[in-house]
Amino acid sequence: MVIGAGFGGIEAAKALRRAPVDVTLIDRQNHHCFQPLLYQVATAALSPADIAWPIRHILRGQDNVTVLLAEVVGVDVARRRVLLSGAEPIAYDHLVVATGSMHSYFGHDEWAEFAPGLKRIVDATRIRRSILLGFERAEMQHDKAEQQRLLTFVIVGGGATGVEMAGAIAEIARLTLAKDFRRIDPRSARIVLLEAGPRILPTLSPDLSDYALRALTRMGAEVRTSTRVTACDRGGVDLDGGRIDAGTVIWAAGVQASPAARWLGAKADRAGRVVVGPDLSLPGHPEIFVIGDTASAIDAAGHRAPGIAPAAKQMGRYVGKLIRARLEGRSRPPFRYWHAGELATIGRRSAVVQFHRIHLTGFVGWLFWGLAHIYFLIGTRNRFVVAFIWLWDFVTFQRGARLITDVPPQQKS
Asked: Going by C-beta distance under 8 Å and a sequence separation of 6 or more, which residues neighbour residue 330?
């Protein structure tokens, strides 16, 4: 049984294609989302359907997989059962937990109402609504101070998501919407990126962080490092050195694992990730595997697998092959993570790429970033559609998904 249809869960199910097993894949959503491009939905470059696919469609050719739309609320480890909300428990022989992560507000969950994070399609559409409404409400506002507050966008967290969001919002304000309003000048919008550490993109080398900083500054974004958020409310954010009044606040500062450790009664690290063994199994329970953002995994070479899509896919593939090998009486070596590099885009014609000693920036980096993301999208249709949309946006400076739609109320994770 596989819980979660993210990158790791899908890969685990696919790796069991030819194994003599019946696979049950459970997820509370009916779709798999390509999370690296969620920010493009949030900034009106792409529509949700461009980066999400029905799980049943992805696995339609795999006869040994049954997909269930249900919410897991616990695991009965002793009786080997997965507990569901509003349904009978389901028994398992092997269990793969790939339930991902959620936003972390560092003990201030009340901030979620005012500073949504970006993990799901509904998060992206909520943020898109907030960004576009900021300009619309500013157009209706006569008070200059309130108008400027509505045109102030604060992104908390200077990792890849934060940098990409800041660049995309700056592009919307400076290019996409520049001529669409009469009472306001969208180019006067203030985009502020806050990072508690000494530099943005801390997992990349300092030269790439410096390049990203310069690129964002050229786009008109304001970057503040070594700046910690101390409070967040409907009117903006308080900092350890003052306050910024803002109409839109977006949280990109941290994540914590799903409650899988609690379900399993397992040891967890500070971020709530389950500490797993060299083969990604739960210590003392060789029939249970934990992968992706849910796992705290150190591979055979002593490398900690990061919480990114390539790592989750490698873990899922490894566990699927390991289960098949065990059923066939074979053994496999411990999991070993292969780092495929890190990328972040900074608006039009600019990105940073780090692949071991190879560093790419500017237009070349942006092309590499685009090709890599198109390659990893699922389905020929989506690859073609996204490539065409990006080309059209590049030529026309327009974003075609600028729809303001109602979204469900913010729910606590």
From this structure: none
CA distance 105 to 112: 7
Nearest CA-CA partner of 193 in 252, 254, 115, 128:
252
Please compute, for residue 60, the number of CA atoms within 13 A of its CA located in the half-sphere on the CB side. 7
Angle made by CA atoms 82, 86, 87, in degrees to the nearest 5: 50
- Cα distance between residue 337 and residue 300, in whole Å: 8
CATH of domain 2-28+70-103+255-327: 3.50.50.60
Of residues 204, 209, 195, the one with CA closest to residue 254: 195
> Which residues is 82 bridged to in the sheet?
75, 90
Buried-state track 367-391, b at ≥16 Cβ within 10 A, e below 16? ebbbeebeeebeeeebeebbeebbe
Is domain 109-253 given the CATH code 3.50.50.60 in the classification? no
CB 315 within 8 A of CB 305: yes
- CA–CA distances in Å: residue 10 to residues 80, 149, 317, 320, 373: 22, 43, 9, 10, 17
Q: CATH 3.50.50.100: which residues of the chain? A: 109-253
Using alpha carbons, list the distances in angstroms from residue 274 to 40, 84, 169, 234, 260: 31, 20, 35, 35, 7
Provide the angle, in degrees to the nearest 10, between the axes of the packed helices 206-218 and 160-171. 20
| Token pair in block for residue 141 | 């506002």
Q: Are 86 and 72 in contact (CB under 8 A)?
A: no
pTM: 0.89
The amino acid present at 126, given as its one-letter code, is R
* Per-residue pLDDT reduced to its tens digit, 213-238: 999 999 999 999 999 999 999 999 99
How many Å apart are CA 131 and CA 117, to the nearest integer?
13
Q: Which of 251, 255, 253 is nearest to 294 (CA)?
A: 255
The pLDDT score that the predictor gives to residue 398 is: 60
DSSP 274-293: EE--TTSEETTEEEEEE-GG
pLDDT in tens, 343-401: 999 987 899 999 888 999 999 998 888 888 887 777 666 677 777 776 666 655 565 56
Catalytically active residues, by annotation:
164
Instruction: Give the span between the Cα atoms of 273 and 296, in whole angstroms.
Output: 5
* Amino acid making up residue 118: L
